[in-house]
Amino acid sequence: MTLRDLPALNAVLNATSAGLLAVGYVLIRRGRREMHQKVMQAALACSALFLVSYLTYHAQVGSVRFPGQGPIRTVYFAILISHTILAIVIVPLVIVTFVRARRGRFDRHRAIARVTLPLWAYVSVTGVIVYWMLYRL
Q1: Phi/psi class of residue 29: alpha, beta or left (left: φ > 0; alpha: ψ in -120 to 50)?
Q2: Cα(15)–Cα(43) distance, rounded to whole angstroms?
Q3: Closest CA to 98 of 52, 51, 47, 53
């Protein structure tokens, strides 16, 4: 694997996180707490690996300019800006959500998870969209 492969790896990690989040949601709705816990830990691991890979890539390459012009450029930056802001916000939310679950504070975990899950899913999905727009259009 080379540095050039990291953006695609990042997209795969984001897509995997999004899929795991969806599975985790279905599992907890069905009362399968132990499987939910394992799946959510896997989602957290994928997101952590993404963060390491993302920071490694951009520490070496810097920022990458979006080559598109016209209305697609506006769409790209709208997605990128919302993605970036929420990616910053989601880190402490995920940590608090995870810690509350680990401590058995399920009432408090559930309350914050209702905010964390959709934001985390949005960040994961828009991460894939940003990749496709930046590297595949």
Answers
A1: alpha
A2: 10
A3: 47
Helix, strand or coil for residue 45?
A: helix
Amino acid, res. 40: M
Tell me the C-alpha distance between 39 and 17, whole Å: 10
Residue with tokens 């989040």: 21
Single-letter amino acid code for the residue at 67: P
Fold of 3-136: Four Helix Bundle (Hemerythrin (Met), subunit A) (1.20.120)
Judge residue 35's burial from the number of C-beta atoms within 10 Å of its C-beta, 0-12 exposed, 13-18 middle, 19 or more buried.
Answer: middle
Q: What does the alpha-carbon distance between residue 58 and residue 63 come to, in Å, rounded to a whole number?
A: 6
Query: Can you give the length of the chain in residues?
Result: 137
Q: Which of 3, 28, 31, 17 is nearest to 121 (CA)?
A: 17
pLDDT tens digits along 77-124: 999 999 999 999 999 999 999 999 999 999 999 999 999 999 999 999
Dihedral of the alpha carbons of 26, 28, 33, 38, in degrees to the nearest 10: 50
Burial, 23: exposed, middle or buried (Cβ in 10 Å; 0-12, 13-18, 19+)? Answer: middle
